[in-house]
Amino acid sequence: MKVLIAGSTDDVEDIMSSILLEEGYDCVFVKDSKEVIDNIYVEQPDVIILDILLSNPSSLEILSQLKSAPSTRGIPVILIASKRSRLKLVKGYELGAYDYISRPFFKQEILSRIKNITFACDRIKELEKLLDRDYLTGLYNRRFFMERFLEEIAWSVRYKEPLSLMMLDIDFFKRINDTYGHGCGDEILKQISSALLSVLRAEDIVARYGGEEFIILLPNTSAEGAITAAEKLRATVQNRTFVCKDSNNGDMRLSVTISIGVTIYNGETELSPDRLIGQADGALYSAKESGRNRVVVYKGT
């Protein structure tokens, strides 16, 4: 488990490292408040320990930003506080902090609070997985995707950050089902899902949209980044050998290709999710009409 620790003094790093590293935790230490957010996006920690004494920006400003961003709001935050910082601690709870560790530090308290938070989060994730995942592929389902899509559009509008959307379809999938059976088709869907996840970033959101269609959201991604990612996805699938198990004929090895439609949203004008999905779907249609196994970017009308 990875723990990111943002401390205002050397004793935070010294004491936390001696306690957590000894227990087998993977620790990342940050002293500069200005670097906390960037490190969180890079490191993708499971838990964040935030010193309430941080300033410029303050720990509460950092916490507020974490809890307002869709990609980081689910990471549990533990505050380091003392008796003199009770008012800040109350404000921290209001902003979404999960728990706190008191100064002076006590080893068993630190370990107990981290273990409790990870146990609770693991149970929550198991329940969320039942509600948010596609039963066959393990990817997010359409309902969850649409919820996150609305959040990411709002974030893009607020901060004028680009947002890219892909619609992806397996070429000639009906032929696979008709020739090799639906069991083989299901295996292809699962293996395609695995291939997509192997290429995409942790912050990207990929869902099964329906049948053999997938939808992918790339936060803070420009046209250049989206096209690069789409081409990498297409090439990864094209160069992969897909295997379907057959009790009578042994393993069947198949070549599969995908077509991808891409649209870019710059956050400057408000567009509905349906409008953006329509743009990506139109580009996908063009990709299939122009020969399949290719990427087409929506150009507008």
UniProtKB/TrEMBL annotation:
- Residues of the GGDEF domain: 161-300
Q: Supply the EC number(s).
A: 2.7.7.65
Q: Which residues carry this modification: 4-aspartylphosphate?
A: 51
Which keywords label this protein? Phosphoprotein
Q: Any idea where the Response regulatory domain is?
A: 2-118
- What protein is this chain from? diguanylate cyclase
Q: Record's superkingdom?
A: Bacteria
Species: Dissulfurispira thermophila
Biological-process GO terms, alphabetical: phosphorelay signal transduction system
Example GO molecular function term? diguanylate cyclase activity
Its catalytic activity?
2 GTP = 3',3'-c-di-GMP + 2 diphosphate
The UniProt entry, under CDD domains, shows: GGDEF
Identify the enzyme class: transferase
